[in-house]
Every structure is written in C-alpha cells, then in structure tokens.
Amino acid sequence: MVAGHRQLSRPHVVHPETDRVPPDTFPGQPVLRVENFFRPDVADALLRFLASAVEYERVEYGDLTCLWRARRPLGEEYFGPLVMRQGQEPDPLALDALAVFESEWFLRWLSRLTCVDVCFLRPPTPYRLDPGDRICLHDDMSDPTHAVSVALNLTPGWRAGDGGETRVGRVTGKFPAPTPADCPIDLHRWEVASDSQLLVPVFNSILVLRLGYEFAHGVEPVAGDRSRYSVTTIYGHALA
Asked: Does pTM surpass 0.85?
C-alpha cells in the first residue's frame, strides 16, 4: 500500500480547482478531459522524474503496439516499486503525485465524476512513447470488472502535428490479428465509428476513459522528435 492511500481530503499536490469539477459531466460518453490536475510545480517535478530517473523496458505486441513501460521488480508488470536508473533516487514530490491515484480522495472524486462506484485495481504505471511508437486500439476489458481508466498526460507543448493523439470511439469491428508466439495476449485489430474522438495530449491533464466492450481507445503513432510521457491507472466496479 502506497503512502496516502487512506487520504480523504484533497492531497496537497492536487490543484485546488480540481475539486470544482462537476459530477457526471460525461453521461454515456467514453472520455472526459480534466486539465490542470496537479499543481504546476508538481506536474513539472513528475515529468522530470519520469524523464530522468525511471528505468523503462521495451514492450512490443506484433506490429500493433510498441512502447516503453516503467520497469518494476523482475517478473512484475504493474505491481511493486518502480526501478530507478543507476545513481537516481526517487523524488518524494513525484511519488506523492503518483500516490494520489491510489488515494481514497481520488476514488471518491472519480466515483462522483463518473457516477460509477469504483475501486482501485492497477497501480499508476508510467509509459514513454518515442517517435514511431504507438498503442493499438483496445478496450482494457481483460477483466469484466474493469470500469474506468485514467491517463495522465505529461508532455508540455505537444501539437497536433506531433502525433500521439488518443483515439476513443465506439467499437464497430474486432478481428483476430497475427500473434507472435512470445506475445502474452491474443492480438486483435479494432475498428471504431467514424465519429471517434482524437485528443491531442495536453500537459498536466487527465483523460478519464469509461471502459466497456462497446468502447475502444488507443494512441496514434508519435510523429514528432520528442518522447510522449503518460501515467495510466485502471479502476474497477466496487463490490456492493
């Protein structure tokens, strides 16, 4: 359990305006963006931590998904402490920021926002996408209890021409794709409706993604000359 998990009041690292986001602002919609989530100095510290201190491992799923995921202890993909680069130490302010996504305050805030009673399932995981990297469309429904995914964007000054947009839409087709023998999951190609949304990354904003078999989301190939940093956490339906 990380520090701050039981915190009920708004954590000191979160921007005060976040409390003013009205509840249920996207009924029936697959995605909502909340900007200026952390205090500016905290967002800057978290970006420095992800860019210079965290060690990453390469993840490739056929020709559909390729990215860098923060490394954890051997054998773990999503649980356990983040592995630091040699000579680097964890930044307490950055760790406080990551702990927000496991806090009781955030669970209540997210439940109020989505009108879905959620529980914490998968720890916040940092990702880095370099030029050419991408994440194929998927629904994050490997477990039917999955309810909401939250993605924090942490690359400043991103523009439409830089690629790396998050695409979100209603599923219109799902087809098997060639799956390498060493791939841990069965790969698929997804199609979404023509009115799907394409969201350019905005620094220090979170995307709240409503999960379900009817929705899919992914990240377009990064086309610029910079890396795209983000942190993703998954929440499930709370037991009654």
From this structure: yes
Give pLDDT tens digits for 142-153.
Answer: 899 999 999 999
- Supply φ then ψ for residue 206, to 5 degrees: -115, 145
Closest by Cα among 50, 48, 72 to 59: 72
Burial track 93-128 (b if 16+ CB lie within 10 A, e otherwise): bbbbbbbbbbbebbbebbbebbebebebbbbbbbbb
**Residue 10: half-sphere exposure toward Cβ, Cα within 13 Å:** 13
Only one residue has tokens 């307490």, namely: 92
State pLDDT tens for residues 124-169: 999 999 999 999 999 999 899 999 999 999 999 998 889 999 999 9
User: What pLDDT, on the 0 to 100 scale, is given for residue 85?
Assistant: 97
Helix or strand (DSSP H, E) at 47: helix 40-48
H or E element at residue 96: helix 92-100
CA distances from 202 to 23, 52, 222 (A): 22, 20, 14
**Residue 97 is inside which H or E element, if any?**
helix 92-100
Residue 179's SS3 state is coil
SS3 236: strand
pLDDT score at 240: 54
Contacts of 190 (CB under 8 A, 6+ apart): 136, 137, 138, 139, 171, 173, 174, 175, 216, 218
Q: What angle do CA 67, 210, 34 make, to 5 degrees?
A: 80
Among residues 164, 59, 27, 34, the alpha carbon closest in space to that of 109 is found at 34
CB atoms within 10 A of CB 213: 10
